[in-house]
Design goal:
Elements lengths: L8 H14 L4 H8 L7 H23 L3 E2 L9 H24 L18 H7 L1 E2 L1 H12 L1 H7 L11 H22 L3 H17 L2 H13 L7 H8 L1 E5 L5 E5 L3 H12 L5 H23 L9 H8 L2 H11 L12 H14 L6
Length: 355
């Protein structure tokens, strides 16, 4: 990343500690991912350390963000507002549950995405407990047409979303991301909130990744891409590490995958180089899972919990100003071929229910 001097002293110490921990990996694993003595890829060390740091910040923010009853977020305590939020919550629950069930996950009783059967709107509003970020995301699912058209699987069909409306949908999305970027400049908390909001949006709905890939396909006259490679970058995956063990999680190297996809989808690259790229992506993915679920700090607790205790909103904001998640975004310009490519890519990544 190369801008550690702009971080708070605490954040710089934490970031360098993560880099140091990568240096303690078993020699074969460290050498395979980062290069062997005399041939180290130091830029790649920062690349992976930044990815892990962002995951730690996301975890720390979520852990510190209190939950409230849904009614806490109502701007107006009118019946119309109560009914609207109740409808939005039902809409979100429907598609969140479908998404989770497609992954084969059984929700525990009382989970926020389980359907809570209550006999009055007031009871439902009190029963649903959300963080500020949860509420923000739910409003986006309901209000942002691009998100609705993805979760309802309409965006890939020209009859359901004609080209003219397709452009309008993405224009609304670009205005929304621009507003997030403006919010990020207001305060430390706004920087963290807005950055994580874009991270989460792109993690669930990889709009920027697919847009850039659609442009590459247009420029190089590519008509098909490998579904497994796209899933490797943008979907829940299960991989076997060459250093032992199976690992399952969402693939969410949101900023990093945009820089990686050229090495996977460039039809001029040798197949052996593509396979090497796939293998390294898998091992970086494994490291991300391990740092969140397995790797411990010197106190014996999980590394991510140590990070959460030792850092603050000001520290996270200083990192995110250097990391700049907003660098993934660009205002969309559409050609008919680009639109066709985008529909195709979304269809590959988000197949219809009958697929």
């Amino acid at each position: 990343m190369g801008e550690e001097e702009k971080m708070t002293s605490a954040m710089r110490r934490l970031y360098l500690d993560i880099i140091g921990s990568l240096g303690t990996l078993p020699p074969k694993q460290k050498g395979y991912i980062f290069g062997y003595p005399g041939k180290e890829y130091f830029g790649f060390v920062h690349y992976v350390a930044a990815y892990i740091t962002l995951e730690f910040i996301k975890y720390s923010f979520d852990k510190s963000d209190p939950e409230y009853p849904l009614r806490h977020f109502l701007e107006e305590k009118t019946d119309d507002e109560r009914m609207l939020q109740s409808r939005i919550m039902k809409y979100v629950l429907k598609y969140k549950k479908e998404e989770i069930e497609r992954l084969g996950i059984t929700l525990p009783e009382g989970h926020k995405y389980s359907q809570i059967e209550m006999d009055t709107i007031e009871k439902r509003l009190a029963g649903y407990r959300l963080t500020e970020m949860n509420f923000f995301e739910h409003q986006n699912i309901h209000d942002l047409e691009i998100v609705k058209s993805i979760v309802e699987r309409r965006i890939m069909h020209a009859k359901k979303v004609p080209n003219a409306h397709f452009k309008e949908v993405f224009e609304q999305y670009d205005v929304f991301v621009s507003s997030l970027k403006s919010r990020a400049a207001k305060s430390d908390r706004d920087m963290v909130f807005a950055s994580l909001a874009l991270f989460t949006l792109e993690w669930h709905y990889p709009i920027e990744t697919l847009y850039k890939l659609s442009m590459m396909m247009e420029a190089r006259s590519i008509t098909e891409i490998d579904k497994k490679d796209l899933n490797l970058l943008c979907a829940p995956i299960t991989v076997e590490s060459m250093f032992g063990g199976w690992f399952t999680a969402d693939s969410r190297m949101v900023k990093e995958r945009i820089e990686l996809f050229l090495s996977l989808f460039d039809d001029e690259l040798d197949d052996s180089l593509k396979e090497e790229t796939r293998s390294r992506i898998k091992e970086i993915f494994v490291l991300g899972v391990k740092y969140k679920e397995v790797i411990t700090a010197s106190d014996g607790g999980l590394y991510k919990d140590w990070f959460a205790r030792e850092s603050s909103v000001a520290d996270w904001a200083s990192f995110l100003r250097c990391y700049d998640i907003f660098s993934i975004w660009e205002k969309k310009e559409w050609t008919n071929r680009r639109i066709k490519n985008m529909r195709y890519l979304m269809g590959v990544l988000i197949p219809d229910r009958t697929d």
